[in-house]
Amino acid sequence: MIARGPDHAIHPYAAQPARPDFRWPGGRRVAAYILLHIEHTEIEPPADAHRDPRFRGAFFTGTPDWHSYSYRDYGNRIGAWRILDLLDALKLPAGVAVNLLAARRHPELIAACASRGFEPVAHGISASRMITARLDEAEERAAIAEARDGLAAIWPGATGWLGQDHGATERTTRLLAEAGFAYSLDWANDDEPYRHASGLLALPPPGEWDDVQTLWLRRVPVTRWPGLIRDALDRLESEERGGRVLGIGVHPWMLGAPHRVRYLRESLEDLARREGVFVATAGEIAAYAATQLQRA
What we know:
Structural class: alpha/beta
Number of strands: 9
Shape: globular
Order of helices and strands: EHEHHEHEHEEEHHEHHEH
Largest sheet: 5 strands, parallel
Distance between the termini: 31 Å
């Protein structure tokens, strides 16, 4: 007989109707967060490093990979500053998924984000080093600790984790909980927060509303971007159930480009107008969700 639910022990299966319903502050049913990515990719990563195999074709030119490096470098040099100006104008909070090498190489960006009260989210070591099953447990634990401790020395306060390209193993949620993280943004299997068996909170990641996933890898036209965000928020706000979360993933090299940033502005202007949506950082949303799930 096929077992009910998942084929793993990372978390138990919980169909939506069986779960407790809760509301975000102000009685709102939907929470939303913006996740800005500050990333460094290595021109020539270590020989044993593994990167997301979907980045091929014109975007991947081999090793050394000058093309990938230059795209992300554009985001850190130019695109991020456009997006910071936009967030300032709309007075919106943001979390910042930052990998360790980017934090070390771009103190000007880290200072700019920290001065705005933005929240760091640990995002591994570099954009060219994923966590995969090629690592044994000791190696994976060491990689998590290196990213955690290195970022904490530069920009303290990260309570959450986003795996590079969502790389993970069956051990990752346990190792993250052991490392002191409160939540992760790596599980796209729900609209609501839930807990893994390790106690780590799974906060819904951007997924369908991540610019690289949607615009670059799936080739959705950028003109559709505001409509994707709008349609999702309209639907979630119309449903009676609460506790819903929508994340918006923004890579400066993608939506920070001059021909794309207008579409980010349109989507964020719509978000800022919605009184029925609790807009906060991922960490604030995760912390509030943890109190609600504890009461259930």
